[in-house]
């Protein structure tokens, strides 16, 4: 699962990122509104953890950006504001949770886990196809599909952007932690595995190649 941390206190930002990575999460970090907006525009996040006060904006405005791009992404506000009115305002603006500073890191992780576990936001259902990113599981007409790792992540990303053409560069940036260290042909390998392990056995077509532009999720569509 991928989480974006938006916090202008550099030490706190680094502590949260490193701590979440130890728990197995993919964590990106930003120290301001502008960079956070950029990341949200190019990647899918299961959860965004953002400070209320940022040097060039605030976390409440960021909620609107997130919900417009990915309505199912959970947003958790962290803030030094300890009054009831601020918490109510954040929740009414669309935050999934509100955590006051200073906070215990173990409690923070537990609350993040709860939001991801009970948020009901990650499962993708299209016709008779079910993709569950939390369990890394695909089910089609009651039959489980053996597709794991990067091919699973590529399929999931394309399914979440089913109305868009996604370029190789966008897929690399969204899925690989260090996209500059891999070559674009890894995308072709992942797409081929999707077609060989899933599309052919099930007699369906999920990924369409758009010449010179990238790929598009095209299910439901008979092969």
TrEMBL record:
Domain Response regulatory: 2-116
GO-annotated cellular components: cytosol; protein-DNA complex
PROSITE patterns (UniProt xref): OMPR_PHOB, RESPONSE_REGULATORY
Single GO molecular function: phosphorelay response regulator activity
Protein's GO biological process: regulation of DNA-templated transcription
Positions of modified residues (4-aspartylphosphate): 51
Domain of life: Bacteria
Pfam families reported in the protein's UniProt record: Response_reg (PF00072), Trans_reg_C (PF00486)
Organism of this sequence: Campylobacter portucalensis
Cleaved signal peptide residues: none
Residue ranges constituting the OmpR/PhoB-type domain according to the UniProt record: 121-219
This protein's record includes keyword Transmembrane helix: no
DNA-binding region(s), chain positions: 121-219
Protein name (Swiss-Prot/TrEMBL): Homeostatic response regulator transcription factor HsrA
Record's keyword terms, sorted: DNA-binding, Phosphoprotein, Transcription, Transcription regulation, Two-component regulatory system
KW Glycoprotein (keyword) present: no
